[in-house]
């Protein structure tokens, strides 16, 4: 009873967290569940196996492969900087660009050009970051297997999250991006 003698107002209790979905609270949420695999793997994901040797052994969907060539292939980056972040890799386990064969470098270049065309069509990006990081000192996450990054960029894709929170907001799930890029590949 309250001081006035009236019964107290009933208190709404939260039964489970699923009842919170959609309740406005002033926060925007960036759902990035694919990052959990990277976080749980620790500082050296896939330390004992090469992800670029393993991916071609899987189905295209499971390996995130969008196209397979004769000497090289393109797949989505499992830990992308932006939606549509592709990697172009030779099948052969070779670490340095100057150790790649002429056939491998030619196909890597051709797949990179085609990746740019496809990503422009699928995502209407405004530009690209292209690059090969050679060695850990140069930023290579997987230094033992050569791979070219093709990162689509948009005029409005930069924000403060990567700088202060080490968080990247990605608007599409990897499976959706892989399907769209694979479907658009000529």
TrEMBL record:
Any Pfam family matching the protein: HIT
Q: Which PROSITE patterns match?
A: HIT_2
UniProt motif Histidine triad motif: location: 145-149
Q: Tell me the protein's name.
A: HIT domain-containing protein
Lipid metabolism listed as a keyword: no
Q: Which UniProt keywords apply?
A: Nucleotide-binding
Taxonomic lineage of this organism?
Bacteria, Bacillati, Actinomycetota, Actinomycetes, Micrococcales
Q: Which InterPro entries match?
A: AP-4-A_phosphorylase, FHIT, HIT-like, HIT-like_sf
Indicate the segments forming the HIT domain, all copies: 51-160
Specify the signal sequence span.
Answer: none
Gene3D superfamilies registered for this protein in UniProt = HIT-like (3.30.428.10)
């Amino acid at each position: 009873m309250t001081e006035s003698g009236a019964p107290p107002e009933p208190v709404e209790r939260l039964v489970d967290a699923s009842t919170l979905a959609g309740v406005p609270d002033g926060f925007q949420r960036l759902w990035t569940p694919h990052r959990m695999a990277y976080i749980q793997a620790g500082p050296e994901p896939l330390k004992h196996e090469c992800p670029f040797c393993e991916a071609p052994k899987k189905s295209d969907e499971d390996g995130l492969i969008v196209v397979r060539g004769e000497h090289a292939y393109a797949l989505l980056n499992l830990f992308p900087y932006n939606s549509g972040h592709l990697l172009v890799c030779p099948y052969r386990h070779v670490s340095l660009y100057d150790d790649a064969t002429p056939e491998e470098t030619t196909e890597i270049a051709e797949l990179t050009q085609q990746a740019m065309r496809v990503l422009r069509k699928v995502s209407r990006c405004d530009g690209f970051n292209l690059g090969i990081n050679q060695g850990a000192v140069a930023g290579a996450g997987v230094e033992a297997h050569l791979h070219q990054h093709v990162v689509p960029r948009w005029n409005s894709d930069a924000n403060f999250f990567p700088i202060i929170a080490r968080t990247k907001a990605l608007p599409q799930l990897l499976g959706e991006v892989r399907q769209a890029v694979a479907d658009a590949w000529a």
